[in-house]
User: Fold these one by one.
Assistant:
Number 1:
Amino acid sequence: MIPTSHVLLLALVLLSIGLVGIFMRRSGMVVLASTTVCFGGVVVAICTLVQGGEAEGSGLQAAGMVVLALAAGVTLVGASALYSFHRFRRSVSVDEHDRLRR
Amino acid sequence: MGPILFWLFGSISVLAALAAVATKRPVRSLQALVVMMIAVSAVLFVMSAALLASELLLGSLVGSVLVWMALVRPGKGRLGAAGRTRLNVSKILGLFSALSLGALLTWAVVHTTSAGAERPEHVLGAAFGFWVTILLLGSAAVTAWLVVTRRRGEESQEEP
């Protein structure tokens, strides 16, 4: 049995690393990777509750599945948007995603 | 033993996450991300959430293999390979959607058919989740088929 505080600490560290990457980096692929790191932290945090009991754990693993599906969706949509942008501008830097402003 | 294994895999996942965020090369970032996902799934195994861990492991491995085969390998280590990349990207999107939603469907089928009086009743019921998953899988398959067909048409128009 892992102490809950340890699991929450690991989840917090992963979430913080991902958030730092999202706000600090300019490469679109690295920003997408940071988003996935954040989702990993969230899944670990959800698993804190799975340890409670088998009956409750089953439903909570379903919630974790939803988070994973959401992460896959976000990654797919982000990757396709980056790919489309790369076709027109030959760049994946998020600082250049300002075409809607003009 | 549990906490030691937990922190062993947890520290690997933290180091890999730092490497994924800190590197400037997209390929290195993706490689570190795959290592982080595998370490996180090991953490979930240690915490006895085997279902989530196997889903995470399967999804990250299949996704990384697909990206490597279609985007990285043809470009000799660089993302954005020349040639028929558009078709490859359409295949990646369709195949990954179908695989991830297929895993969800399998889980829903196993969960719905498992016997047990003490099974918890969810807010909307297991049957609702089952049909929603089938609907999602069907729409993903139709979307993938439409995208691939349309891309094939564009490719054949551009060739002459």
Note: Chain B touches chain A through 49 residues (CB under 8 Å).
Number 2:
Amino acid sequence: MERFFGISPISGLPLELEVENGMGEDSATVREESRIVSIERFLSTRKFRILSDFLAVTFFLIVVAGPTLYVFFTILDWSTVYTWVFADPFTGDTRWMVMRRALFLSFQIAAITTIIDVIIGLPMALILARYQFRFKKFVDTLVDLPMAVPTSALGFSLFLFWGTKGGFAWFLGMESGLLSRGPLMVVLAHVAFTYPYIVRSLKAIIINIDETYEDAARTLGASSVTVFRSITYPLMIGGLLSGATLAFTRSLGETGATIILSGVYSTAPVVIVSWRRMLQIPPTAFLSAILVVIAVILTSIVRIVMRMQGGALGKVWPDIERRLSRPRMRITRNIFVVLTFALIVLIPSVFIVNYMLVRFSGSPYTGRVESGVFYQVFVAPDRKWEALLEALVTSLRVAVLATAVNIIAGLPMAFLMVRRKWGRIKSLLDLMIDVPLSVPTAALGFSFFLFWGAQGLDMLHPGFWMVVVVHIAFTYPYVVRTLMAVIEGLDPGIEEAASTLGAPPLTVFRTVTLPLIGPGILAAAIMAFTRSLGETGATIVVMGLARTIPVLIVDWVESLALPAAAFACVILMGISYCLLLTLRYVLGWE
Amino acid sequence: MMPEVELVNVSKSFGRVKAIDRLSLRVEDGEYFTLIGPTGHGKTTTLKLIAGLVKPDDGDVYIDGKKVTDLPPEDRGVGFVFETFSLFPHYNVWRNTIYGPQVRDEDPESSSRVAEDLLEMVLLGGRREARPDELSGGMKQRVALARTLATGSKLLLLDEPFGSLDAKIRMALRNEVRMMVEHLGLTAIHVTNDTEEAMTISDRMGVLRRGHLIQVDRPEELYKQPNSLFAANFLGESNFFEGEVKKISEDSLLVEIEGGKVMNMSTVGRWKRGDRIVIAVRSENVKILEKNTEGMNTMSGTVERSQFIHGFLRYEIQSELGKNVTTWTFARRGKSHMIGSRVTMSFDPKTIFAFPYPEEGLEEAISFE
Amino acid sequence: MPDINVRDVTKRYGRITAIDQLNLNIRDGEYFTLLGPSGCGKTTLLRSIAGLVVPDEGEVYIGGRPVTELPPEDRGIGFVFQHFEIFPFMTVLENVAYGPQMRGWDIDYTEKRVYEALEVANLLERADTYPRDLGAPGLQRCGIARALATGARLLLFDEPMGSMDPKDKRQFRYELRKIVKDQGLTAVHVTHDQEEAMVISDRIAVMRRGRIMQVGTPLELYYEPNNIFVANFVGEIDFLDGFVVDNSAEGCVIEVRGGFLISTADSTKKRGDRVVIGIRRENLRVQLGRKEGEGRIPGKVKRSVFVGPYVRHYIDLENEYSIAVKEPSGRVKTISSGQEVTVSLPLRDTLVFDYPENLEDEMALE
């Protein structure tokens, strides 16, 4: 008898076999395999399929969709809400005024952010999708970098870059920070963190447009600017609008960076967080409900505009457009792209690393050890490193749990969404899956707090498990959407081949589909994991005594322990960035 | 004014793969020129180099005697027809057709007239409002042709234009295209891997293999006088025999092939006694004799397989040498050889080609890889 | 025994009827081809035999057993795909072993079947190769071996050579037929390429718009097509139209435009009938100069094209028809563009059809 290592032809997984005659597999393995197939044949019957569909949908409705929309039930008690918001015996309608101002500010910030995003993101997406150059992979990775930076860390980093004399001001030779906390800084932060999202989605859209359309247009006499205007742009307009809407919703709902940077100006999510801290439940519910409604509307808009295509080509100015297509203009554009990316997105996002290194052992100005990272974290009597370690463990546990649950529950859901022909019901589910994606996480967290907590089912209390449940909900769309895309991209022929070879549906899934979508599952998992790791808003609202790192960062910034906060940021960024690199590796750099 | 096209020592690599290697080619005014060769041997790249969609690493491209190597595609005045049609999906038939004149900001009235005429010519005058996805494959390619011609371009580059169409549509459309090119006085460069298509439509054609242009000639000459084993094999079906030159006389060459058979061929060439060569005979030049006779240039065998291919009978005959010989004859109803019957084949001395035995071996020399 | 019976099968996709009340009988051991233009329903028919499509109406029987409700994995068929669909993460061997393993056969029997299948498909030497290292013909051989290893006696081919080079295609079709015949299998093959169908099949069904136009051997379809569409779709043909002016037991005489009289061997048409004549291009004879007489029409050579084994002459006839003639290229070449010639139509091989309601539609290929 000899030992033999090989790959199982059925599962594609490594196998360790004991082979008697040195030829082929042990017949026990074959028997085992055929036993599994017969079980799978049994489980492939209609009855079990219906059961699995039922479980997938139920999970979605009870764990994800229900609690997200629950907030509406609490404002049904309209008289209480009305009293709190519009007719408080002491402050009158002050809360309503605060709410209105916050919403208005949120919309302004989101709109400006989106416009800047498109202006600086579109040319970058175009370059990454259509041009070949050296270091392209490198640039591509850099563009994704801010995605790895949790928003609270990003906010802090931006504050250091724009708002302190050690940042951009130092470069300009100024004595104090260039900007102070406020809407402008919030816009800058939102641009930085939505930039990778918009560049990525636009890039994917452009790559999907068959390049021969552009070739055809050029051979028909259109200069590259005309080609973009008349072919590429009309074909991508749906994608552009939906990408922009997504950036808008992400900006609208952002909490972590905003808390740090908004100063005295509060956006809607920040208001939710602060009212929740003061335990003002009815007005918080009301504001959350408004945000959920806005989210549902925006999601519906994305659906509608996604398939849009542009119309006829109007007037052409061949001379001007030709002049704009000249190499010199292209160089100008490239410089613009590189400068805006570096100055607005890249350097501010990672500036914190520099900050931390400079201050590691002490303040560079006074030389005081107490202002150093090392002292604050490891030496100071409040033993920050213990809190940091605890928060890190909590963060990782939450992320692991949320990811695992979502992969298990999301896979059947994704299959069902792609494969079943349910008509209307499916379109409704399709819309609902995206809702947690666009609801500001603070509002989402608050709705969960109401649903599971004392005001609702009274099953969970703010603390670790509630954080897990909330994280499951807001990472769910990422997992299901990624898996759906992978399954849709699967060649149906290959599954048909397996079924004509005699494999029952569940066996086809295990032996053919799963190995093919494996990388996609891993990608979905990493995506969910990173999002969970960086989340602030939802966590603050439901965390109780459990603290995750992003929350810790906010706390430390607020208590002005800046060097320690920087240290925590860098650790979190390091973990996220490693995960992101893994993701890119898994997806083959694309 | 019809354009001529010239490539001078053009090379192009993609990564480490050399797609085109020092290729020179001249296509005359008003010519219908076809590039043929197996898939992945540089045909499309050559076409894109002419259009400017690909920039050469080395060498120059001339159109009408003017160097265009550095000119972007929009300024070269070429028309390009794609295998996948590439009709703009967001425009209807009319807007697709008028796109070229529009982006050049030409007079709308006259360009409308041109586009209308062209759509009539491709028999789609009645489908102006249709979206591309409502059209069949053949119709899409007709619109694509009209769109290309509407720019007034006199140089038409066609990249496997019929590749994604049904076999019958292909035959119909290729005649239409050929007529159109003649009628409008265009120069056309066409890329295909279908040799029958190439021979049917071309004035001249070039055989591409591994980025090299190995032979350029009129279809008939190319077919009758291939300069290499590859060309002999790629155009039409041939039988190959390895052999040695035995005797050279004024007007004939005696070659001993496998199995000691002696073949007589009437092209003498530059051979010496004892040269190792490969002889090739086209399948349609192998005749099946009515009577069984012995003698030079004959071979006996057993019919292994017979196939009826639109009007032809193709036989595969297990020859006395042990290897299969294929023959083609026009089918006449009621006249055929049964499978298993013994036949004698004869090889006309005038139709035998000879090539030096290739260094890389016969298999490799005729391989399409 | 895998004979196939398709009874009154209809399949609709939305408002489009892909196959319409279709009946078909495929015999055991037959190499059967479904031929037709894109969108004629041939693939839908094949997929409903495989069980990959469930028909809206009608029944499918395989070996006398109704299988309409059976899922594909239980039908005992082998399906070979246009895009091969070889599992990319398994070697050739593992791909081929997939089917036997699904059936839980013991290791010896599995091994035997797999190696037999690999041998039949000429893939023994490449058993450990990964699909990415195989060319199109190799991938398709793997597809066939994989189908054979399951012990399927019925093979369904969906445009199996659709993604190959013309040269590979020509080689591969002989291999395909040989495998099917040597192993005594039944095969149903879908293609739009009439040349491929003619070479590979025992019988062919020509389909159009969800219906079967004719079923017959390649020679029957070629020499005795039932209708204009089949005549046009199979082989190269030209059509003239005219009226029957005389008929007898031996055949009829037809007058075409320009007053030319053509005798045919068709005796079913009556005097005064409006008819369409079809003549295969290789059955026409061309002579130099202008000659009078029945069955002859003078014209002028527009273009002569050398196509390897044959030459195609495009001729504008005096009565304003344009036709083409195929001649073996070995003949002494005397005909060239611009020359006056006379075309003679053969008595026996001239096809006669009733004039259809819409001739153009009847001849449309799409």
Note: The radius of gyration of chain B is 24 Å.
Number 3:
Amino acid sequence: MNGALPLIWRKFGERYDLDGNFCETCGTAFFPARPVCPSCRRRGKLVPKKMPKTGKIVSFTEVFTGPAGFEHETPYFIAIVELDNKARLLTQIVDSEKERVKIGAKVGKVFRKISDIDPEGPIAYGYKFKVVC
Amino acid sequence: MVGIVGYGVYVPKYRITVEEIARVWKKDGKAISAGLNVKEKAVGSFDEDACTISVEAARRALAHSGIYAANLGAVYVGSESHPYAVKPTASIVADAVGASPELTAADLEFACKAGTAGIQMCLALVESKMPAWIKYGMSIGADTAQGRPNDALEFTAASGGAAFIVGKKEDEVIAEVLDTYSYTTDTPDFWRRQHAEFPRHAGRFTGKPAYFKHVIAGANGIMKRVNMKPSDFDYAVFHQPNGKFPIRVAKQLGFEKKQIEQGLTTPLIGNTYSGSMMIGLASVLDKAKPGEKILAVSYGSGAGSDAFVLEATKNISKKRPKKTVFDMFEEKEYIDYAEYVKFRKKLKSL
């Protein structure tokens, strides 16, 4: 968990339980939460909303050269997942055999360590996804 | 009526066999596996720890109970592998499952029995008039148990956990807790000092004066209190440091093999320490029918036993989890010793 702790702490709801928001005017869900609905603008009415915990892979790639802090996790999958309410997010795919990671695969959210590189620093927890069937 | 209103189990998907560990140290894997009555153990992935395991178990328990997370008045996490020395696992778990902020939370440690100590605390809080607002409490036993390479414990020290929610609404309790009892002495059979990476143990001293003495005293103590004998129980669950001790202690107490089979999980996943007896109890609740009676006795080195007598209620048939504990064990992938070393960060350069 690098950088400013308060900034990360403010995102705990998003990272732990997929807290996003929803525009009651047009019915669109946003993750992460948006300050303004891009379609409805000032007519939009945004309310906090928890995102569904399942979705499907719409695109993925396998990372062989990870950025700093992730170099020992390679090779690993990252994917764009479309949640059941159409909101999309970028996530790591874990606990899933290579042949099951494909476009259209159903995935479910899991709670994992995202970063734990400083043995004396705080641990960052958050969401990852795994293929569920 | 006070008792269990929901439970959840989480066991990581990776497994390493006892024979694979023995291969590395040039030992007789078949003989060790048969001697311990353990085939393989569950291994947490590189991004799993006692906290992530607790969250997964807690979420399953909430889903099973149907209770709104914000109604939890207490969250306790019992573990001997809390990720932080100072900074509670319980507050992370409570936040992650949506139980925060109106609740009490704390981390517990009593080797392998901290989770059952938490169940006792929840029972007392839920029954208590002070504070009267606590209607439900959750206790979790979870570990990513540390086994020193080439130590006897390496064959069994596993990862996993279970969460139990305690409540007192008659239409929600699936297993009433008829009584609980504890037996505690200062017995230094197993310990880990501050900053030490791996626990140390006193070899054979962990058996008779430690595990057997306390489990037997715990079981006999509670049976005396509720005026019951082994044949009065449909199921019995004991702490399972390996697959052999619980069978032997059951025999010494006068239980038959069929009473303990449903709760015997260590042969398939290893010793999940704080999760061990609680995962066994969850497996028994998967199967128990209304009116059936269960004896459950944990053991924590250092040393003590918490004993519980439970009776399944009519609500249990309506609340069967979608996946049983034994079904969950089938979702697995084998890893070799090198991957195990990587996942559990036993290489110093990681």
Note: Residues 207-226 of chain B form the longest helix (20 residues).
